[in-house]
Write a structure and sequence with these properties.
Mean pLDDT: 97
Helix content: 25-40%
Strand order of the largest sheet: 2-1-3-4-5-6
CATH topology of one domain: Rossmann fold
Largest sheet: 6 strands, parallel
Shape: globular
Low-confidence stretches: none
Bound molecules: S-adenosyl-L-homocysteine, iron/sulfur cluster, FE3-S4 cluster
Number of helices: 12
Number of strands: 19
Radius of gyration: 23 Å
Length: about 450
């Protein structure tokens, strides 16, 4: 019997990938994905724990689902299974079970390959959730079924999981567990299948993707750079990206890869978090600002049209006006094409949360506004610098405006152009005719 599955995804790209893999896992049990919550037999919320706001959403979402579940039961005598997955499930599984007894299933990010067993244990009459938040010894990738549906022209592919860096603000090492690199064969097989199913761009994912060092079939350990070279050999793969990288893992062959592999896009998300050496040390980032500048210079030497993106945290405990000024100065020097920035959010169990010198919310807000203004002006300048340029665009989807399609530039910019410019999955030359804060508009160039 066909059952409808609705998945709502919060958080990072790894969660987007995991959601798709959960759907693959549930598909042999007869679950088919739907985009309509009201017809769902099972609802999975795939959660994020990174900041307080993100994890608070889970409980309000669960409150709404409780109402839906009980009205469904009363009016149609039909059950709706509620599952919580992802990083909040991992960090607060017990608390979810206690505070939200209408939740039927709780599964962590390293355990969702066991979904079929967990689903078989479901008992609609029980008020006890079925839980698996183990960090199993086996590797989930060995147990996941093949992709059930095509992933579109630009697909995510997780190659690395977890994190051993333990930045003092961050929950990821606790929610995703220890660093793990998928072996080469599984990655290459998955890449080939994605390409066969129509993907032309692969975005390799990991919390520390450039720390990947995986085992090859002959028992050798490959570096991340070597993996990029191997992927570049695959027929039909036109674009390669990877995210998120840590400055400490920018090894020599990665710069070579950027210089030599044409499919590797000239855009890198390389978070630095702060421009103050004092704060970088307190964050346990294990590098200083000069090291970061040297990396940026080397990347630009390797690929002169390289654009950079980053993540920033303002108001880390103990951050002074001077530290903050150092961050603005770093941003000035790097000149980002885009960036994400956040107010420091104390997370349970992380060392920085118990620092005494927490920063006032008002100060955090003020610093965030200043920093975002600078980043926004850099983004605007970057977008404007592309006016008049002809660039390759991968057509990804119909645009929200009628008569248009949307795609991405090599630098991840969203680009809109007329509907009849080409088919989804094509890479076409587009001349940029307008530049906005967050996107570009273009016209197909007939060659
Ligand atoms: N592995 C990546 C980042 C993963 S989390 C890296 O090392 O760069 C994504 C971003 O969320 C981080 O880069 C950081 O900017 C932000 N972040 C993480 N923990 C945070 C916290 N406690 N408060 C505010 N922002 C946080
Ligand atoms: Fe978190 Fe730091 Fe690991 Fe990134 S490197 S996931 S910020 S602990
Ligand atoms: Fe959030 Fe977990 Fe990703 S905490 S950012 S979903 S790794």
């Amino acid at each position: 019997m066909v059952k409808k599955l609705y998945i709502k995804t919060y958080g990072c790209q790894m969660n987007v990938y995991d959601s798709a893999r959960m759907a693959d896992t549930l598909s042999p049990l007869g679950y088919v994905e739907t985009s309509h919550l009201d017809e769902a037999d099972m609802v999975v919320i795939n959660t994020c724990h990174i900041r307080e706001k993100a994890s608070e959403k889970v409980f309000s979402e669960l409150g709404r689902l409780r109402k839906m579940k009980s009205s469904r039961q009363e009016q149609e005598n039909r059950n709706m299974t509620i599952a919580v997955a992802g990083c909040v499930a991992q960090a607060e599984g017990e608390e979810i079970a206690r505070r939200a007894p209408w939740v039927d299933l709780i599964v962590g990010p390293q355990a969702y390959h066991t979904l079929p067993q967990l689903v078989s244990k479901l008992d609609p009459t029980s008020r006890q959730a079925v839980i698996n938040t183990d960090f199993p010894v086996e590797n989930k990738f060995d147990f996941l079924p093949e992709e059930h549906t095509p992933r579109g022209p630009a697909a995510f592919l997780s190659v690395q999981e977890g994190c051993d860096k333990f930045c003092t603000f961050c929950v990821v090492p606790y929610t995703r567990g220890a660093e793990f690199s998928r072996p080469v064969k599984g990655i290459m097989d998955e890449a080939k299948r994605l390409i066969e199913n129509g993907s032309v761009e692969l975005n390799l994912l990991g919390q520390n993707v450039n720390a990947w060092h995986g085992e090859a079939e002959d028992g050798q350990t490959w570096s991340f750079g070597r993996l990029l070279y191997a992927l570049a050999e695959l027929d039909g793969l036109k674009r390669i990206r990877y995210t998120t990288s840590h400055p400490l893992d920018m090894h020599d062959d990665l710069f070579d890869a950027h210089a030599e592999i044409p499919q590797l896009m000239p855009y890198l998300h390389l978070p630095v978090q702060s421009g103050s050496d004092r704060i970088l040390a307190a964050m346990n980032r294990r590098h200083d600002r000069d090291t970061y500048f040297r990396i940026i210079d080397r990347l630009r030497d390797a690929r002169p049209n390289m654009a950079l993106s980053g993540d920033f945290i303002v108001g880390f405990p103990g951050e002074t006006d001077r530290d903050f000024a150092d961050t603005l100065n770093l941003i000035d020097r790097v000149n980002y094409a885009s960036a994400y920035s956040f107010k420091y959010s104390p997370r349970p169990g992380t060392p920085a949360a118990s620092h005494e010198d927490q920063i006032d919310e008002a100060v955090k807000s003020e610093r965030l506004a200043g920093l975002q203004q600078l980043l926004a002006s850099q983004q605007q300048m970057f977008n404007h610098s592309k006016l008049g340029e002809v660039m390759d665009i991968l057509i990804e989807r119909p645009a929200s405006r009628e008569g248009q399609k949307a795609g991405r530039s090599p630098w991840m910019q969203a680009v809109h152009f007329s509907e009849n410019s080409g088919e989804i999955g094509d890479i076409i030359p587009v001349k940029i005719v307008a530049a906005y804060q967050n996107s570009l508009a273009g016209e197909r160039v007939i060659t």
